[in-house]
Amino acid sequence: MYGSLLANVSPDRKIKETIEQFPQNTQAYYLGNKPVGLMTCWQNAFHPYSLNFAGYLAPRLTSVEQMQVYEQILTDLTAKAQKNHQNALITYDYAPQLLFNAIGQKNGFKLIRTTVEPQMPLKRALKNILIDTDLQLVTLHEIKKDSVMMNKLAQVSFSDYQKNHLANPVAKIPLSEWSKTIFTDQLEHAPLALIAAGQIKAYCFSFEDASQELTLGWMGAVKPNLLDQLQQQLLNWAQAKYQTLSGEFDSTDPLATRTYRKYAFNLCPVYETYLKELF
Asked: 249 pairs with which residues across the strands?
């Protein structure tokens, strides 16, 4: 439907992805009878206080036309957010940003997070480090047998998630819902957490997003060196089955950022998140 307007836009751009996901929420903008802009929006149940959207402006417009269409899109988005009792607009895409988001950066949208999803050969991440034998290493298979410890891990990881998303706050959800999110795809027999005196000292979720690829997910620790120990034990376990190591690392998560910098990951695109507070 919008093929001519988006003909030169890469398939991995957010606007192309989301107009397919949310066609019912997509709106076109015209100058005369020519489509020159697009907007689509959606809700994120985990982050309900901001309206998620993707916007697009045709690059051939004059600067006056750009601002005219940009302001119309922003007015419509603001009205939708206020109707939903949301206090911010949030958008994300790969750097460098397309025209709409580039204009947004000069008009109240602030960069709140960058995200990378790099890869590297798993064996290249293996290191020789000392392991504290006083710490108990547990897998999901083992922790399922201890409901108290399983709840502690859910509570700790949710608290960390909240701290890492202060700019776009997390909904007040039942712990059972969060538990379902984090444990559903966790590898059953992969090292998951280090425990001492009945407390979670470090955790690192891991998933198999692709064949022979181990992906690092949510992580946390009372001390960074304990996370190092856990990750090395995880990698040692994984090397028999996996060849590639990957992960999703947000700049708002200090331990995720540390992990990304610690290993020699390949260069990859940077995903940027921008937020504009409405009031």
From this structure: 116
In the numeric block, the tokens 């000069």 are attached to 106
The distance in angstroms from the start CA to the end CA of the chain is 35
Q: Are strands 249-250 and 136-139 parallel, antiparallel or unpaired?
A: unpaired
What Å distances lie between residue 256 and 17, 27, 147, 203, CA to CA?
Answer: 26, 37, 27, 12
As a 3-state breakdown, the chain gives helix, strand, coil percent values, each rounded to 5, of 35, 30, 35
**Phi, psi torsion values for 239, nearest 5 degrees:** -65, -20
Residue 3 predicted with pLDDT over 80: no
Say whether 173 sits in a helix, a strand or coil. Answer: coil
Q: Average of pLDDT values for 252-278? A: 97
The side-by-side arrangement of strands in the sheet containing 50-57 is 27-31, 34-42, 50-57, 88-94, 270-277, 110-116, 249-250
pLDDT at 132: 82
Tokens of 196: 């001492």
- In the predicted model, is pLDDT for residue 39 greater than 90? yes
Picking from 158, 131, 143, 87, the residue whose alpha carbon sits closest to that of residue 229 is 131
Residues 6+ away with beta carbon under 8 Å from 222: 201, 202
The helix (run of H) or strand (run of E) holding residue 14 is helix 14-21
Which whole-number Å values give the CA distances from 13 to 31, 160, 235, 275, 277, in the listed order?
Answer: 24, 29, 32, 18, 24
56-to-52, 118, 161, 191 alpha-carbon distances in Å: 14, 27, 30, 43
Q: Domains for the chain: give ranges and CATH numbers.
A: 14-108 (3.40.630.30), 119-268 (3.40.630.30)
Global pTM exceeds 0.85: yes
Secondary structure of residue 124 in the 3-state scheme = helix
